[in-house]
Design a protein that fits this description.
This protein is mainly α and 570 residues long. It is built from 30 helices and no strands. The protein is elongated. Its main location: host cell.
């Protein structure tokens, strides 16, 4: 039945009396036990506010945790038998189980001992658990017992019994009126506060505090804050989240940390400085603590988090500083989620501020990269940003910016070296734009496309089409006309030899250039026709020396010539 609320002092006195009665009832069975283990201590006052809050809630519910503990201790006191307890202790010593830790519960001897106690308390199994706790607690004390129980709970075969014994231990503490702070000290968690999260019994403490209807993570966070700066604690929690043994508790502590900041209405900028992120410089995005700040800003306003983070960055760092931060984040191979998240919003913000492609190029320090330009991951970001703006000729815009910092020759060399990079497609497009920039002669363009290096195999080169297109476009090459390409090639290779090369290449289907080769052949035939060259002249010339390639020229020109209209002589 539920206990009615009674004044705190009377309740604690009642708990003390029952606890003492229990201690007396089994004192003969525990000759080696420190009497302090069984004397109920009054709750400490350093958690007064927390305790008051807990008691008020308990009154509202009608039954609080301490009253449940009081009832549990009373029942246990009635069920435990001093003689049976003596027998349990004696068997424990005879089996030398005190030497079996930490794998106590997995020991066959422990199973023998446990079954013996369960047999003696066959009608009251909960008393068997209590008897085991009395022996184990008397042997090692609360801290060591908690460690043994935690270890046993990690194993499926011993999890159930360990959980039951822990529950008995908790009822004992509640009956003794132990506060969260009492339990913290009892478990000796204060002795190694710097490695608190690695201590297995911290889980025991968390479980106990939860039974007190108190948020254990708020209290634990306060303990940790006395040994760490805000930045240091954030880093500790991040590291702990990488370890599966501490991942869960670290995650909840981080949530408690964010919730506390939010409850205190801390601004994004305040936490940025609290975590010392304003002192990181261009290594900002390499600092893992930045992720904690990101989580907090997102918690404050998820919809506008990007804008809020950018606003804070701009308070502490100029655009000239922010740009290189993204470069460092990517080139170091440790780009944070914040860098990836803010990159494109930053570019959008710069565009809204009136910054053009040339400004962004220098803000990313791409003008300082030298022959490593295309290896810088920010180059691809810059190129993508220009492309997404919907400009009519983004490649032309990019090339004009690059040419302000690099010569055509150096750009060409860098582009040729970039064929293996992930952004090679962009570089290839820019190379075409570079090679096709206006003002070059037919011969200069031929060399830029490296066609002069191909010798007589130039008809198989993939750059042939681009070269022909360039030199036949009046707005591009100097002294360009319809026959510029064929005239240049005829001078370079002799026009009848060129005709044979074109015919053979057309049959061979060289390098996928058939369309271009047919265009060149047609241009050559047009030139001959305009110059009055007849099929008979071509046939006579081609048969002077035996060359199978000449037959194709004869047939192709005959066909071309017949398709031309007959011109009446004046």
């Amino acid at each position: 039945m539920a206990f009615k609320a009674i004044p705190a002092q009377r309740r604690y006195c009642a708990i003390l009396l029952v606890a003492l009665a229990l201690a007396v009832s089994i004192s003969d069975a525990l000759p080696t036990t420190n009497s302090k283990t069984f004397v109920a201590s009054a709750p400490s006052l350093d958690q007064a506010v927390t305790q008051t809050h807990r008691h008020l809630r308990a009154y509202e519910d009608g039954v609080n945790s301490e009253e449940k503990g009081f009832e549990g201790i009373t029942n246990l006191a009635k069920m435990l038998s001093p003689n049976k307890q003596k027998a349990a202790d004696k068997l424990f010593r005879n089996l030398k189980l005190q030497k079996e830790t930490p794998d106590l519960f997995g020991s066959p001897k422990f199973q023998t001992w446990m079954k013996s106690i369960q047999k003696s308390y066959k009608k009251t199994p909960e008393a068997a658990d209590a008897a085991m706790v009395v022996t184990l607690r008397g042997q090692w004390g609360d801290a060591e017992l908690a460690k043994v129980l935690q270890s046993a709970m990690e194993t499926r075969s011993t999890n159930a019994i360990a959980a039951r014994l822990e529950d008995v231990q908790f009822k004992k503490w509640i009956g003794e009126g132990k506060t969260a702070d009492d339990a913290f000290n009892l478990l000796k968690l204060d002795e190694k506060a710097n490695d608190l999260l690695k201590n297995p019994v911290v889980k025991t403490w968390v479980s106990y505090v939860e039974k007190l209807d108190v948020n254990p993570y708020e209290l634990l966070l306060a303990k940790l804050e006395t040994h760490h700066t805000a930045a240091g604690l954030a880093r500790t929690l991040l590291v702990a989240r990488q370890d599966y043994t501490t991942r869960s508790i670290a995650g909840k502590l981080q949530e408690a940390q964010l919730e506390r900041w939010s409850r205190k209405k801390r601004s994004a900028d305040y936490i940025f400085k609290l975590l010392q992120l304003d002192k990181e410089g261009d290594k900002l995005f390499k600092n893992p603590v930045l992720g904690t700040w990101e989580s907090y800003v997102t918690k404050l306003d998820e919809k506008n988090a990007n804008e809020a983070m950018l606003a804070v960055l701009k308070i502490h760092y100029s655009d000239e500083k922010i740009g290189p931060m993204f470069t460092v984040a990517k080139t170091s191979g440790s780009a944070s989620s914040v860098a990836a998240r803010l990159e494109h919003p930053l570019l959008k913000a710069w565009a809204n501020d009136g910054k053009d492609a040339a400004d962004v190029f220098t803000l990313f320090r791409l003008d300082k990269e030298g022959d490593k330009l295309f290896e810088n991951p920010q180059f691809a970001t810059w190129a993508y940003d220009i492309s997404r703006q919907g400009r009519e000729n983004p490649n032309k815009v990019m090339l004009s910016v690059m040419k302000a910092h690099y010569s055509d020759e150096s750009l060409e060399k860098m582009m040729l070296k970039a064929t293996h990079l992930s952004n090679s497609a962009i570089v290839s497009q820019l190379r075409s734009e570079l090679l096709l920039s206006p003002g070059k002669t037919v011969d200069e363009a031929f060399q830029l496309f490296k066609l002069d290096k191909a010798g007589k195999n130039f008809l198989e080169d993939p750059g042939l089409g681009s070269w022909v297109s360039y030199v036949t476009t009046p707005s591009k090459a100097k002294k360009s006309d319809e026959f510029a390409a064929i005239s240049f090639l005829a001078d370079r290779f002799e026009h009848f030899e060129l005709a044979k090369m074109l015919s053979a290449a057309k049959i061979k289907n060289s390098g996928g250039n058939n369309r271009v080769i047919e265009e060149l052949q047609t241009l050559q035939f047009e030139k001959w026709w305009e110059d009055g060259v007849t099929p008979r002249i071509i046939s006579k010339t081609m048969t002077k020396h035996f060359d199978t390639r000449g037959l194709g020229v004869i047939l192709d020109y005959e066909k071309f010539y017949k398709a031309k209209p007959v011109v009446d002589p004046l």
